[in-house]
Amino acid sequence: MSSTHIYDQFRSQVKPVLNSKIEEFHLLGYETIKEAELWEFLTKKKWKKPSDAIRIAELVQDILNVKIADYMNYATIEAYKTADFFSALSEEEKKELLK
Question: What is the average per-residue pLDDT within 4-28?
Answer without folding.
Answer: 96
